């Protein structure tokens, strides 16, 4: 039976950071169930000279920030002079264009509303949980109504827009499930909130982390851990694994495990994998249940020619009409029938279309559409052809342009919820969760008084969970805990 000192489970950023920190001299292997390293960072070649990040795509913060420093050293950050101008194209259901200043004003009011909520509810962690949806949208509506900048027909559309934007930022299933107290306690990383990457995305970053793994024998892809048991007499961990490509089972004995899989994966598999460790299940089951884990998906449309101005970096759709129906192409109508998308499903998709980002890292015209909540999960069952055509025709309808003239040449979409080894995008503070849950999720398992299983990953970070930074930092922390034991 094979013996390894340390097994790292999960080849995302946390796992790779743990491997880098353990160093060449520690006898470890990194186990990854998928056929690539990176986890929720997945960079794909979408066209000649064009890469797309289907998962994480921003570097958050730029001060006292290891992720930023590495990306800066690798020269993969997009500089200010390389980015497009910071202007949004804002259009209503009737095809009416709004000045970008009105979005700036609405953004300011939204931030003021959140700041007021923070002043009111700060440090009230002992009270019953408060839903974000119960407080912020209502206060935001009051501010919009009291401002002379917004006509009545724009009030609800702007509320809807910012609620969807907030869902995208947090990945929550709904704002009713977002814990306002914990949300307000979230710590943004210092500096620029979102830093764009050059063409190539996060791929050089993942390759950089991988370069510290001495050889490929330390990496086992397509290998799923299905059972972990602590053997009291031997004071070792028994790890059973399914080698997916070889269709066989193997067992490894180890002293320590660094567990870095997504919270979504733990929600579905924790009890089964650790069925022999009731104390571990008791230690973590509430945290795993309570912390939220949602899905954000992208639909990427690649065009041959731009139909928006060069200075535009995003397109905002304000749904000012309750009736979301519009004339669609015969091709789309036929595709909807083939894939059995009824009128209610179609309207749900259209209603979720609120924001298109222009990819700044390339001169190739690329738009990124964001889906969140139940709709994000629903579109995973649809073909790229269909969902891309819906995104395209809705946009053309709002912009009042002929959709046949500017057909996308390729459509891609992410499917993070369908991925059984991830099951979503990133964690959020649900109405059930508290800071204690994240501390408990990170807590090590020491059945014999020695840390045998340590946990890492973005969901275990108490302050800025959901980010690449959180994954990196917790991976480093977990490895250092092991190093403090083995020397």
What global shape is seen?
globular
* N/C terminus separation: 25 Å
Remind me, CATH topology of the domain at 2-41 and 200-293 and 429-486?
Answer: FAD/NAD(P)-binding domain
Helix content: 25-40%
CATH class of the domain at 2-41 and 200-293 and 429-486, anyone?
A: Alpha Beta
Please summarize the sheet with the most strands: 7 strands, mixed
Tally the beta strands. 20
| Radius of gyration, taken over Cα atoms and rounded to an integer in Å | 23 Å
> Strand fraction band?
15-25%
- Name the CATH architecture of the domain at 2-41 and 200-293 and 429-486: 3-Layer(bba) Sandwich
Binding site for FAD: 32-33, 225
Domain Amine oxidase: 13-483
InterPro entries: Amino_oxidase (IPR002937), FAD/NAD-bd_sf (IPR036188), Flavin_amine_oxidase (IPR001613), Flavin_monoamine_oxidase (IPR050281)
Cofactor: FAD
Strands, helices and their partners?
Layout: E1 2-9, H1 13-22, E2 28-31, E3 43-47, E4 50-53, E5 58-59, H2 66-73, E6 87-92, E7 97-98, H3 100-121, H4 132-146, H5 152-170, H6 180-185, E8 195-196, H7 203-210, E9 219-220, E10 223-231, E11 236-243, E12 248-259, H8 263-273, H9 278-290, E13 292-294, E14 296-302, E15 312-318, H10 330-338, H11 343-352, E16 355-358, E17 366-372, H12 373-378, H13 384-399, E18 410-413, E19 426-428, H14 435-442, E20 453-455, H15 468-486
Helix pairs in contact: 1-15, 3-4, 4-5, 8-9, 9-14
